[in-house]
């Protein structure tokens, strides 16, 4: 059977848009046909790099019936508006974690996609890593018995290395700091391995990084099956061990 | 200078009383001169094993002016009454963790000893282990820079191995279950290494053991210096790794 790749437009050009575009090119399951970002220079560069059309506006992409999906790498606070518009234009959306900066915006995004009947694909790549898939397979095979407790840590030493001009490192662009930015990868992995999370306790602190955002955070998670887990996320200590 | 060992009486005979008595004999800093427990059989056996007098009552020990200290290994819920009586009799007290089952009883114990001017020695042996002392020395030497985050785990597989007749495994004798019984060792170690704890969030669950007590528990601790730490304690999984 011939496979026709999904025709996608990428929006929001930054370093992560290129990581995804590279993966799209390797997978051949999507084809990048257009791109848009506010900076003309950035969208021309992306268009040249990935052999697609630089659209004059996001509206032009939405109006293009040939485009079936949006790969959305805009900043978090633009996710709701851009995704709602994509859903209204009957286009599927790929959206990276965190899909929103607030629970209510996250809910509004899922409702918009569900009502429009389009797929909302979530970018949580960690659960797709082979070691976590292996553990999941072991759990399914009963190798670990009843799950009761797990510990997760995701740490990156960002001391002296952060760009306070990036929305990724400000409380406005990434409320919750290190926990929303990288810790959330492991709330997803813990949910993938131990099941849905029904309650959370947590604390965060800003201890060594400049700016206005927490750089250390700790959670206790209660899973529906009863298991408890903890998650530590840090931008103030070396990578996880 | 000649060293005169402190004359001590042991009260509350169980398996832990003998662990401490063995250590006392090795240290030679104390001399066990008397013992008391409600079971005449147990106190006679202890007296024979450690070459001390089996006192007919706790009162007899308290009235003996030659006895300077009490090594108290009674169950938690007897700590307050026995320690208050010892302090009133001007005797120093060694009391194992947890010193009480409630914060108010713990405070009453410390107040009684302080007012009587006697030493209340606490049995938290974990912080005395050489690896934790080594880490403490490294911290003092500045090897780790600013402390921001730590993780602790204390787990013991008790599935099929617990004695529900022991106060150590019941909610009445050891409220909080695994966290009060063994987890507390590592709240002490975390405090030893990261400084005083000013806030705690936690959850506990009873998942695999019989009885009426939590067998899995998780805490997030906030230290006065700002560092966050997590502690997981379990009687439902293998020993810490």
Write structural notes for this entry.
The structure is a homodimer of 241-residue chains. By secondary structure, chain A is α/β, with parallel strands linked by helices. Chain A is built from 7 helices and 10 strands. In chain A, helix 4 (79-88) runs parallel beside helix 5 (103-116). The first copy, chain A, has a 6-stranded parallel β-sheet, sandwiched between helices. In chain A, strands 7-10-9-8 form a 4-stranded mixed β-sheet, covered by helices on one side. Chain A has 2 domains: 6-123, Rossmann fold (3-Layer(aba) Sandwich); 139-234, Dihydrodipicolinate Reductase, domain 2, CATH 3.30.360.10. The first copy, chain A, is 34% helix and 24% strand.
Brief write-up:
In chain A, helix 4 (79-88) runs parallel beside helix 5. The model of chain A has no long low-confidence stretch (mean pLDDT 96). Chain A has helices spanning 15-27, 40-50, 58-63, 79-88, 103-116, 130-140, 178-194, and strands spanning 6-11, 30-36, 53-54, 69-72, 92-96, 120-123, 149-155, 197-205, 216-223, 228-234.
